[in-house]
Design brief:
Elements (H helix, E strand, L loop, with lengths): L1 H20 L10 E3 L1 H11 L1 H21 L5 E10 L5 E6 L2 E6 L4 E15 L2 E2 L2 H66 L4 H36 L7 E3 L10 H8 L2 H4 L1 H22 L4 E14 L9 E12 L7 H67 L5 H36 L4
Parallel strand pairs: 1-7
Antiparallel strand pairs: 2-5, 3-4, 5-6, 5-8, 8-9
C-alpha cells in the first residue's frame, strides 16, 4: 500500500509538469483558454483543499506504519559512563580495628541492550485490531479526499457555468446596445426628414445610455464570474483566462435519473466514511474489553560493564551478562477506568449509527430537491423557448410599424425590453437546469 501511494505521488508530480505545458494553453497575448475538462483537471492539481486532503492521506499511511510497529520487537540501547572523582568506600571491623577500603575504579561504564516483544495484549495476539483501526482510518481519509474532489469538481463546474451565463448575458446586452444605436441613427434621419418628432430622438438617446449602463453591469458580472472560476480552480486572480464552452440544454431522461438515484447511499463518500467509523468504534470497544485480560511479553537484557583507572579495560576489568524472561501483567482494579472506556466506545458506535440515519435522510432530501429543480427548469425552458420566438416576432413587427410611421417609440421600446427579458430568462432557465443536474450528480454521488 505504501509503494502504491508513492507511485501515485510520482504520477501526480508528472501530471503537474504535463499540465504546465498543455493545460495552460496560452494565446500570444498571455490569455489562458479553459474548457470545462481543462478547468476541472487543473483544479485537481492546484486547488488547496485537495492538497490538504492528500496531506491527510499521508498522515493516515504513517499511522498504519506506526501501529504496525507495535507488533515488531522493540530494541533499545542505553549506556552510562561515570568518573569517580572520589571513590566510594566501605568500612568493616577487624578485631578492635575499623578498616576503610575504597572500592571501584576511577572510570566505569555500563551498557544495556534491551529487547521486548509483545506476545499477547488486550485479549489478542499482537496488535491486529489496532492495525485494522489504523487501516480503517486510512480508508476514511481516502473517502475524505474523494469528498474533497467531488466538492472541487462541483464548485469548478458551477463557476464555469456561471461564466458562460455571464458571457451570454453580456452578448445580449451588446446586441441590445447595437440595436438601440442603430435605432437612434434611424430616428435621427426620420427627424431630419420631418417624419419623426424630436421627442422620439431624445427617447432613443436615453435608450442608448441605458443600454450602455446595462452592458457595463453585465461586463462587471462577467469579471466577477471569471474571478470565481479562477478561485475555484486555484489560479491567481490576476491571470487572464478565456472560457471555451456553450451553455446548452441537454435533458436527462427520467428513467436514467430514477435508476441512478437508487445507488445514492452506496455512492456517497460520507456514508462510506461513517461505515468505516462504525467499524472503528466497534473495534475500539473490543480493544477496551480486551484490556481486562492479562498481557504477556518476552523481554531480554544484554549488559556489558567495566571499571578501570587508566582506561585500559583488561579481561579482569570488564564483564557481560544476558537475562531473558517473560512478563505477565494483569489489571486487578483500575478504579473502573476500563468500564468507563468501554462505555465511551459503545456510545461512539451508537453516535455513528445515529449519524448514518441522519445522513441517509439528508441524501434522500438532496436527491429529491435536485430532481424537482431539474423538472422545474426543464418546464421553464420549454415555455421560455416559445416566449423568445414570440418576443422576437413582436419586436420585428414593432420595428416595421415604427419605420412606416404607424407604430410609436414606446411600442418599439416595450417590444425590445420584452425580447431582452425573454432571452435572459431563457438563458437563466438553461443555467438553472445545468446547476440542478450538477446538484443531482453530487447528491447521488456520481459527480463527473
Amino acid at each position: 500500500m505504501i509503494h502504491s501511494h508513492k507511485l501515485k505521488m510520482i504520477v501526480a508530480a508528472g501530471a503537474v509538469v504535463l499540465w504546465a505545458g498543455l493545460a495552460f494553453a496560452q494565446d500570444s497575448d498571455g490569455v489562458t483558454t479553459l474548457d470545462l475538462k481543462t478547468a476541472v483537471d487543473l483544479a485537481m492539481q492546484l486547488n488547496p483543499n485537495l492538497k490538504i486532503a492528500r496531506d491527510r492521506e499521508d498522515q493516515a499511511a504513517a499511522q498504519i506504519r506506526e501501529v504496525a510497529a507495535g507488533a515488531l520487537p522493540q530494541i533499545s540501547l542505553s549506556t552510562n559512563y561515570s568518573r569517580n572523582l572520589k571513590r566510594p568506600a566501605f568500612f568493616f571491623k577487624l578485631g578492635e580495628e575499623v578498616r576503610r577500603i575504597e572500592i571501584g575504579s576511577q572510570n566505569s561504564y555500563v551498557g544495556n541492550v534491551l529487547f521486548e516483544q509483545t506476545i499477547f495484549s488486550n485479549g489478542q495476539l499482537g496488535v491486529s485490531k489496532a492495525r485494522r483501526i489504523a487501516s480503517l482510518f486510512s480508508e476514511v481519509s481516502l473517502e475524505g479526499t474523494r469528498l474533497s474532489k467531488d466538492e472541487v469538481i462541483f464548485n469548478v463546474r458551477r463557476a464555469f457555468y456561471t461564466v458562460l451565463l455571464a458571457e451570454r448575458v453580456a452578448e445580449v446586452m451588446q446586441e441590445t446596445l447595437a440595436q438601440t444605436r442603430a435605432h437612434h441613427d434611424n430616428v435621427k434621419k426620420l427627424v431630419e426628414k420631418g417624419v419623426a418628432a424630436q421627442f422620439d430622438l431624445l427617447r432613443s438617446e436615453v435608450e442608448v445610455a441605458d443600454a450602455q449602463a446595462a452592458l457595463i453591469d453585465a461586463q462587471n458580472d462577467l469579471d466577477l464570474a471569471e474571478a470565481g472560476l479562477k478561485n475555484a480552480i486555484g489560479l491567481p486572480l490576476d491571470k487572464p483566462v478565456k472560457v471555451n464552452g456553450d451553455l446548452d440544454f441537454q435533458p436527462v431522461p427520467d428513467t436514467v435519473l430514477a435508476q441512478r438515484a437508487q445507488d445514492a447511499l452506496a455512492n456517497r463518500p460520507e456514508m462510506r466514511q461513517l461505515k468505516y467509523q462504525l467499524e472503528m468504534a466497534r473495534l475500539n470497544a473490543s480493544i477496551q474489553k480486551g484490556s481486562r485480560f492479562p498481557s504477556l511479553s518476552l523481554t531480554g537484557t544484554y549488559q556489558f560493564q567495566g571499571q578501570s583507572s587508566d582506561f585500559q579495560f583488561g579481561p579482569t576489568e570488564r564483564s557481560t551478562s544476558f537475562v531473558a524472561g517473560l512478563g505477565l501483567r494483569f489489571n486487578i482494579f483500575d478504579g473502573f477506568a476500563t468500564r468507563a472506556r468501554i462505555q465511551q466506545a459503545q456510545s461512539q458506535a451508537n453516535e455513528v449509527l445515529h449519524q448514518m440515519e441522519q445522513v441517509s435522510q439528508l441524501v434522500k432530501v438532496e436527491v429529491k430537491r435536485a430532481t424537482l429543480r431539474m423538472k422545474s427548469a426543464r418546464q421553464r425552458i420549454a415555455a421560455r423557448e416559445k416566449s423568445v420566438a414570440q418576443a422576437q416576432k413582436a419586436f420585428d413587427i414593432a420595428e416595421v410599424r415604427y419605420n412606416n410611421g404607424v407604430g410609436t417609440q414606446l411600442e418599439l421600446s416595450d417590444a425590445r425590453l420584452a425580447l431582452n427579458r425573454m432571452k435572459i430568462n431563457y438563458l437563466q432557465s438553461v443555467y438553472d437546469y445545468n446547476i440542478a443536474y450538477l446538484e443531482w450528480q453530487k447528491a447521488v454521488g456520481i459527480i463527473e
